[in-house]
Design brief:
Length: 515
């Protein structure tokens, strides 16, 4: 058996490959950017074959950079974003471009389902809400608007499964992807035939993939894939898991007392439920967790990607700051200087969409507002958005009662920001060791499938760890939380204003595409 494993993580912007030894130490990592297109307003698509090229390039770079003999790779596995869609013909080739889970084309159809009660009925059958980028909704939209795609489709596939199919030919899925797609009854693990019949989608049933465990060897690297990636032909390929579950495993979430919070492109809050899925307050996503139990997830596009936009668009693009040094270091230092202080400024991190149509904005500024206080407001506003998601995750009698938060994503790289999470959320925050948690989580599956560890639990204990812990400060937290009710009220008021039709809207000039 080889002494290392590879995990691939295909995310919203990048496809990454990371090489780990069997103790979880990262030996090499490479990234390739995915090409995302926006062919119509609200659509977000991806060239599936381009994503495979990005993955194969990343694998090749990892092997080359590390000087690893391909024969030393014990196994490889894949994680990817949940929901979205990849539809394949009988030969495993895409019948149309892939769809990313940030796609919003189904909004009008979902409004119909909400009005006639089908959305609520379906949510009870699949144990999670129905939302625009969900695979269930996308399949219904395609059946209505692109019926020829249904006829040409042999297999419904998801991000990680398409890539794994290119590695070894297997097109099955696991319970995490099938669950996050909204296509199964979470409690039973069976495809949700009743929900599909309710929505008139029975034609998709024979096209849905076989479901199996995340840590099972399902094939071996083909000669064609070996030539593209540098892997040894015959290397075991393990089924893998959706990125949310991978991050939770890499964060050592093994008990309901631990909550996984990802602060990256998305705000993601995941809680573990041992005895039964969460039924009394239906979450955004829910699926069987590879270690047992169920992971209930709340999320929104309101996290650290908003800071990235501010830095790239307002700071660097506008000439940057004259203080020198890395711009993120400058921003982090600004927040450090004013930690625990009050600012009237409030940041609403809705650049990629807000609740009920709430707009993004930095409000409450005056001529006396310093750069440091403005940056403090941005950090604080993003944590407030996480708090809103976490409060939803912890709603209901069946909600988990976590005692610690495991924080990953871009925000976790800043000790000051991590402390702010602990201050505002009122729970200790632990930051796991490492940086590529999606890749590590699926590498844990690879190591288990290859037999290097006896179980996923043993693999997590051997390959994951905690780098630091922040207890939080109640006094600092009180300063932030005093603003939170006003923050929520202003968020809701702005949403109401922005969603109120303007008079004579039909004669209003359209907003510039470059605005």
């Amino acid at each position: 058996m080889g002494d290392c494993v590879i995990g691939i993580d295909a995310g919203g912007t990048m496809t990454k490959a990371a090489l780990f030894d069997l103790s979880g130490h990262e030996k090499s990592c490479a990234r390739s950017r995915n090409v995302t297109t926006f062919p119509h307003l609200g659509w977000t698509e991806r060239d599936a074959d381009g994503m495979w090229r990005a993955a194969s390039d990343a694998i090749a770079h990892v092997l080359e950079q590390s000087g690893t003999d391909p024969g030393d790779v014990a196994a490889i596995s894949v994680s990817g974003y949940g929901s979205g869609l990849y539809l394949l013909d009988r030969g495993g080739n895409p019948v149309r471009p892939g769809i990313v889970s940030t796609d919003g084309r189904t909004a009008a159809m979902l409004a119909e389902w909400t009005a006639d009660g089908r959305a609520a009925d379906a949510a009870q059958l699949i144990n999670q809400i129905v939302w625009p980028g969900q695979s269930l909704a996308l399949l219904a939209w395609l059946q209505r608007h692109e019926p020829e795609v249904l006829e040409r489709t042999h297999t419904v596939s998801f991000c990680k499964d398409f890539l794994r199919g290119r590695l070894c030919g297997d097109l099955s899925t696991d319970f995490t992807d099938a669950g996050s797609a909204g296509l199964i009854e979470v409690a039973t693990g069976r495809y949700a035939e009743e929900a599909l019949r309710l929505l008139g989608m029975e034609a998709w049933l024979p096209r849905l993939p076989e479901i199996g465990p995340s840590d099972e060897v399902v094939g071996h690297v083909t000669a064609e894939a070996a030539a593209l990636t540098g892997l040894r032909q015959g290397t075991p390929v393990v089924r893998g898991t959706v990125d949310m579950a991978a991050s939770a495993m890499a964060s050592m979430v093994t008990d309901p007392a631990q909550m996984s919070v990802v602060a990256g492109t998305f705000s993601i809050a995941s809680t573990l439920h041992r005895d039964a899925p969460k039924m009394d307050a239906v979450p955004m996503l829910q699926f069987a967790y590879p270690l047992g139990g169920w992971l209930a997830v709340q999320g929104s596009a309101t996290s650290a990607s908003n800071l990235e936009w501010v830095v790239k668009t307002l700071l660097q693009h506008g000439g940057g700051l004259e203080t020198g040094g890395d711009i993120y270091d400058v921003v982090n230092s600004a927040v450090r200087r004013v930690r625990g202080q009050h600012t009237n400024a409030m940041f609403f991190p809705y650049l990629f969409g807000g609740p009920e149509g709430a707009p993004a904005g930095l409000v409450g500024m005056t001529a006396r507002t310093s750069f440091d206080k403005a940056m403090l407001a941005i950090f604080e506003g993003i944590v407030f958005a996480h708090k809103a998601d976490i409060d939803l995750a912890l709603t209901g009698a069946q909600a988990a009662r976590p005692e610690v938060i495991r924080l990953t994503g871009g925000a976790s790289r800043s000790a000051h920001w991590s402390e702010m999470f602990a201050d505002i959320l009122g729970l200790p925050v632990e930051v796991p060791a490492g940086s590529e948690f999606g890749a590590l989580g699926t590498a844990i599956c690879a190591a288990t499938g290859a037999g290097a560890h006896g179980s996923l639990a043993e693999a997590i204990a051997a390959m994951a760890g905690i780098a630091r812990r922040h207890e939080g400060d109640a006094a600092r937290g009180a300063v932030h939380l005093a603003k939170y009710p006003k923050y929520c009220a202003l968020r809701d008021a702005m949403a109401a204003v922005m969603t109120t039709p303007a008079p004579h809207a039909a004669t209003t000039a359209p907003e510039s595409a470059h605005a």
